[in-house]
Design goal:
Protein-Tyrosine Phosphatase, Chain A, 7% strand, 51% helix, alpha/beta, five-stranded mixed β-sheet
């Protein structure tokens, strides 16, 4: 669905342009403006040059404080903007382990679903800041978390929704993480293989959990964007003007 190449950086496996998709009106998301990624702490000097060539001047970082402290970065010419969302699923998992409980695969999947429900109901303000930052800064930007899959995946879903892209296409973009992201044991910690397999991949059920809450509790995506996310009609129109081709 997305003709834009993914293999752009050596030190970030899940870095990709969200441009190239078409919305329900047939308009194409403008390439070269907004990129999504896993964390940027292991970029090479050549990657830094590549980001400069792409014109990227801001990185919007959804990682929590401990994540950033573990893998900080400083990219010449790129201003990091902290939009911290703490990884609550890790805390929940640690709590279970402390109690001697090893969750089943199904229980781990439900923990991930709950994480996505929390994105909708508890992190709307932060995701709203993300979308507004795209409006405030006309230069290309990249947004990311640690693996570029959950917080980043939901942020991409919100942005593409605001641009009028349908949910099947949004899910396609979301699931690309399973093809692109190279798991890093240094970041994953120690856990039972069946649990780690769930935590470090994406499943349609995770994103569906968020969409279900958006629809059932907030009246659908457009109402959610204009309500908890905090966008006004002119914000959405401006996003479309900037990020959709004529």
């Amino acid at each position: 669905m997305n003709p834009v190449s993914h293999a752009l950086l050596q030190g970030a496996s899940n870095f990709r342009d969200i441009g190239g998709y078409r919305n329900t009106e047939g308009r194409r998301v403008r390439p070269g403006q907004v990129f999504r990624s896993d964390h940027l702490a292991r970029l090479t000097p050549q990657d830094h040059v590549r980001l400069q060539a792409l014109g990227v001047q801001h990185s919007l970082d959804f990682r929590g404080q401990a994540e950033y402290t573990t893998t900080p970065y400083n990219i010449p010419g790129v201003q990091r903007v902290a939009l911290s969302i703490e990884p609550t699923v890790i805390a929940r998992m640690q709590s279970l382990v402390a109690q001697g409980i090893v969750p089943t695969t199904e229980e781990t999947v439900e923990l991930m679903r709950e994480t996505y429900r929390d994105f909708v109901n508890h992190n709307a303000n932060t995701f709203g800041q993300f979308l507004k930052h795209l409006l405030e800064q006309p230069t290309p930007q990249v947004f990311h978390c640690t693996a570029g899959k959950d917080r980043t995946g939901f942020a991409a879903a919100l942005l593409l929704s605001a641009l009028g892209v349908d949910r099947a296409t949004i899910e396609h973009d979301y699931l690309l993480t399973n093809q692109l992201y190279k798991r890093d044991p240094r970041l994953e910690g120690i856990g039972h293989p069946h649990v780690m397999q769930v935590l470090w991949q994406v499943q349609p059920e995770f994103l569906h959990a968020a969409f279900d809450v958006v629809d059932a509790q907030h009246g659908g995506m457009q109402a959610y964007l204009r309500g908890p996310i905090g966008l006004e009609a002119q914000h959405i129109n401006e996003l479309k003007r900037r990020l959709l081709e004529d």
